[in-house]
Amino acid sequence: MNHGDHGGHGGMDHGDGGMDMGKMCSMNMIWNTQIEDTCVVFDWWHIRSTAGFVASFFVIVALGVLYEWLRVAARDVDRLIARRLVAEGKGKARIRSGRATPDSDSEAAGLLGGERALRKVGTPLPLLPRVSRAVLYGAQVFLSFFLMLVFMTYNAYLILAVVVGAATGHFVFGSHFDINAALAAATDSKGMSCH
TM spans, by residue (predicted)? Predict the structure, then answer.
């Protein structure tokens, strides 16, 4: 099998004067364990050797760990913003009981009170916290889609790298557990979804 053949185009003369352009990236659309001539998302991330593949494996593991760190960092920034807003008297820290009331549940208040469904709920955020939250969210979305594209190489080893990175990051950054939040079903159970 010619791994440099992109759907029958590998042997075409592209007017390069007969210059050997080297091996090309293999584009597998099925489960594979290919090591050499694998490209990771970009054509410049062309793995040409076993050592390059091992290095790429660990870079992808690090990206998975980074994704988990970003999730925790975003949650921590939200907590920090909430504490500052409460300290400035701009927000109320409410503890909900088991049942929602029209006063405490914005959806029920809108439905029962006849208010418009598109009203904004919560405390308005100043510009800097909004920018911080948006940057962290954008980084999470970018990295989650990037890792999805790595997964879509269908390379078993690269898929393993994504999973090992996510699990390692979850282990490292998930060392504390909020029992009350878990029992109230308020924990972030999103996991490593695209965003």
Answer: 51-70
How many Å apart are CA 113 and CA 111, to the nearest integer?
Answer: 6
b/e string for 93-122 if b means 16 or more Cβ within 10 A?
eeeeeeeeeeeeeeeebbeeeeeeeeeeee
Alpha-carbon span 68 to 174, nearest angstrom: 9
Handedness of CA 68, 74, 77, 78 (dihedral sign): negative
Q: Are the CB atoms for 48 and 59 separated by under 8 Å?
A: no
How many CA atoms, within 13 angstroms, populate the side-chain half-sphere of residue 26?
A: 19
DSSP string of the chain, one letter each residue: --TT-STT-TT---SSTT-------B---S-B---TTEE-SSTTSEE-SHHHHHHHHHHHHHHHHHHHHHHHHHHHHHHHHHHHHHHTTSS------SS--TTT-HHHHHHHHT--TT---SPPPPHHHHHHHHHHHHHHHHHHHHHHHHHTT-BHHHHHHHHHHHHHHHHHH-----HHHHHTT-S----S---
For position 114, what pLDDT does the model report?
A: 52
For all residues of the chain together, what is the average pLDDT? 79
pTM > 0.90: no
What is the pLDDT averaged over residues 166-181? 90
Kindly tell me the sign of the dihedral angle through the C-alpha atoms of 28, 32, 35, 39: positive
